[in-house]
């Protein structure tokens, strides 16, 4: 199959965007079960059907996101296989998403093709707590160290796409209110014609929150959060071969929290977060391939306050220049290739890194699909590093009224010490620390999937991944060190989607993750067992009900203490009054479960929300 031509079938936020703008504009109650023709972008930076994909990818469509209803994407991701989320006291507070037990900074996060990493943070990860769910059309998660084409580390790649219109114009407005004096407002407009397409969105969220810290026993104040997110995207088809795209994103957030200040701890703490992202790209499509040249910039600033006085502030930016392309060698063979330059800056600190990569993609008899890719990175600080990925999928048709896919993949990655880690150790002025060197990761997936004629999808995946030369913060002398040993995460993922009747759908996943640090102790805040059971019920075309029960068990905190085992029940119902107006109710933690995700930080009890959405 000619993968180059196929890659233009979907206009998700791929590295090489499509000239025609398409999306799933079906009712949000129509939640599709994955099949062999489900399009995946994140695995190889181009659109390809799931039948060809040998890596492990989870997909959330607009229907899934709206059915769950949460304000924050981090809460939606809790239902995805192998994803655990640790939150320090409510919406907008420091939140870590771990994939297969790997730290959140190891997962690359992109929104409409824009890398939203923070060069000023400790390890350079993205602030996932500030991503709202408004107008998200698709979320793809590449699980594990298979992000060779992106330079991603062991956690994988989280690729987020905003709404796109297939034709015509659509405007949406929604308002929501509920527990903790929470309010959400959003307005967006999008449209497309033969030559132009666009999307603009403005969202505002406020919550008074609750007392974040269990150690705040005197003030016991509410710790609120505010977020204003503006997002715009436009595309212009200059001709049948040339397309120009631009993306702008601005996130302005403030929050309150407890336990700051030194040597005297205070509970009147706040922070301000501002991130501005921009990306412009020019793409060309020919008969034999496609290419895209893009430039992106992310500017970020953060300030912390203790009793209203600034106690810490930082700012930095990331600039990227990328040339990506794909070329068909024959009807069954093709290559994806790219050249990338990245510059990180934090105040007077800077780092340059170049990369070149290529992946061969082939197939045989439309049953066997395989890839082999290489990447070479050259860092100004740490020299060169090579990484690669190999994968293969084998399709067996006509098995119990369906098809079976066997898959295997092996990938490597690396992470250079962040500017923060280097500067922090440098400030200690201790020659005994030694120089930090890059971490290296490697991981293998072995899996089997069953596709049963759009009514059943089953997946079983075994994974094993290792971080070599991991950088750790040593609490004994408060420095970053490397002991040369390795940490490991291995386990199994079981996923099932079932269309039980025309109106009833069941989804379930279970992940067992066994983790070890360099000294053979469990890695903290990584539950061994994660599970989700979801039910979607649509008794009428205008009414839909979604219920999800999630479970977490057998985790330890950073001090070695046992974390809570817990189950949390969430539900939402949507009712379409007419073709324009939809009202909805959402309940979170319906059983009012009292549990802890991070020692010393409170979690929300039972909460209820109601909203209305207009779409025309």
From TrEMBL:
Coiled coil: none annotated. Its main location: membrane. Residues 182-590 form the TonB-dependent receptor-like beta-barrel domain. It holds the Pfam family Plug. It is found in: Cell outer membrane. Belongs to the TonB-dependent receptor family. Hemoglobin/haptoglobin binding protein subfamily. This is TonB-dependent receptor. It comes from Microbulbifer elongatus. The lineage of its organism: Bacteria, Pseudomonadati, Pseudomonadota, Gammaproteobacteria, Cellvibrionales.
